[in-house]
Known about the structure:
It is a single chain. By secondary structure, this protein is mainly α. It has two domains: 3-115, no CATH class; 118-248. The protein is 55% helix and 8% strand. It is built from eight helices and five strands, in the order βββαββααααααα. It has helices at 28-44, 101-115, 118-135, 139-164, 169-173, 183-193, 198-217, 223-248, and strands at 3-8, 11-16, 21-23, 60-62, 76-78. The strands form two sheets. It has a three-stranded antiparallel beta sheet, with helices on one face. A hairpin with a 2-residue loop joins strand 1 (3-8) and strand 2 (11-16). The longest helix is centred in the middle third of the chain and has 26 residues, at 139-164. The two termini are 27 Å apart. 25% of the residues are buried.
Amino acid sequence: MYEHEFSFGRKKGYFDKYGLVILQCTSEAETIKKLNLIFAISLIKGFPVLSVRNTEIIHSKIYEDREVLGQPLGGLKWHISHTKRFTPTNFQGQRKKGISLEKMYEIIQDFEKALDNQNLSNSLLSLIESYTHLHNKEYSQSYLYSWLIVEQYIKNRFEEIINQKNMSTERKGKFKDPDRWSSDIKIEFLNLYGSISDEEYEKLSKCNKKRNKFVHNGLQINKELAESLYDLSFKILETELIKKEEKIN
């Protein structure tokens, strides 16, 4: 068996070992978001995939009274001219890289976890966009998406500390003022509090300074800068997914 059916919420999904993913969704926007979430997790698992665009979505209809799995996928009616299921080759005729069902199970499990965490979902979507822009040599765009992940990471670590303290809502609100608590100040606070190491402090401070120069002074983002920040954002999300897996296991 090289195909598998799964469910998320009350909806169905299917995948095969060649990366064909079918999702039951109510809108194109929902489909793109969920597919890119799966692809972002696949990226972290070691598969170099790019984000999907609306022009790459293929609409199909699921017949509840028919088997979906098989050769071809008989329970689906493709709204395109093709009548056979997709072959394991891409449009250039090169063979696609196979994904084991075991690895696909891991990806889908992480996908289901991410659906329950809005911040994680948004960061994963930023990661796949960052990688896609990096792949296309669009370094400034890649840098911005990577920074969104790093910035969210800084915010999460900062809020973890604040939420541990027994204080009023009004007092907690003071720590949400962006004019007082910029990313730079938060990084300093996290290091002094012992929440991040000196090494991580240096990395985050350097990235924050580069980001400010890019936004405020027009610093040109080259391949090296884009790759460096992407690598950091990738590591942040990879670590977060590992922690979630360890909690469940």
